[in-house]
Specification:
The chain is mainly α. The chain has one domain. The chain has ten helices and no strands.
């Protein structure tokens, strides 16, 4: 099945419209709440940490660099496991970074800066944004409309190179390597980012299973 057939198959699936909108809502709010996590600067997921660091060094928008990186990874996914590609893959590649950039531009003009810089405000914003980001990511994943290129790479590594190693360890190692790249390029590693290497994936999966009971 070629990529075009794969995409057409998604459009013919039962409940496509409902799943598509659940995916779209999840992607939008991932970018929306990610903007708060970036602004309070207490830690993000490893992928965002690396991409924020690189975008600042290149002096380009976070969304632009994220799209460039995802395009490169997208080519790898096409070559080695195109079954992971769907409409949600493209939405994730294009929309999350630019949504975060747009929201940050709005926050700088509407929200007092001290709310992002001073305690306890930044801690409250961080916790609330992280919880809601996890819920949004769970909606996106449960829609089953394809995974992001970043998330597809650990699956490919696990299926093709590290078949005898538990996937969770492959994913942790992959996120850890991405974290290290961001650090070596000058990013400041927060403890919350380190914790996300080990906890974010399982937490999103657990929340997704809970939300799935409501048959979204």
């Amino acid at each position: 099945m070629n990529l075009g057939d794969k995409i057409r198959r998604y459009f013919s699936r039962p409940g496509f419209a409902k799943k598509f909108w659940i995916m779209a809502i999840g992607v939008f709010f991932m970018g929306f709440f990610l903007s708060f996590l970036i602004e309070v600067d207490l830690g993000t997921d490893p992928c965002t940490f690396m991409n924020i660091t690189i975008s600042r060094r290149l002096n380009i928008l976070f969304g632009t660099w994220q799209l460039i990186m995802n395009t490169f990874l997208f080519i790898i996914v096409i070559l080695f496991d195109r079954h992971q590609i769907g409409p949600g893959t493209i939405a994730n590649m294009v929309c999350i970074g630019y949504t975060a950039d747009l929201c940050r531009w709005i926050w700088k003009r509407t929200i007092p800066e001290y709310l992002f810089k001073e305690w306890p405000y930044r801690a409250v914003i961080f916790v609330a944004a992280l919880i809601l980001f996890v819920i949004a990511a769970s909606l996106y994943m449960n829609a089953d409309m394809g995974v992001s290129p970043y998330d597809a790479i650990p699956n490919i590594l696990s299926n093709r190179l590290f078949k005898n190693i538990s996937f969770k360890f492959v994913r942790i190692a992959f996120d850890g390597a991405v974290l290290l790249i961001g650090f070596l390029l000058g990013g400041r590693v927060e403890i919350c980012t380190i914790l996300m290497v080990f906890l974010l994936g399982p937490t999103i999966t657990a929340v997704g299973k809970f939300l799935n009971k409501f048959e979204f």
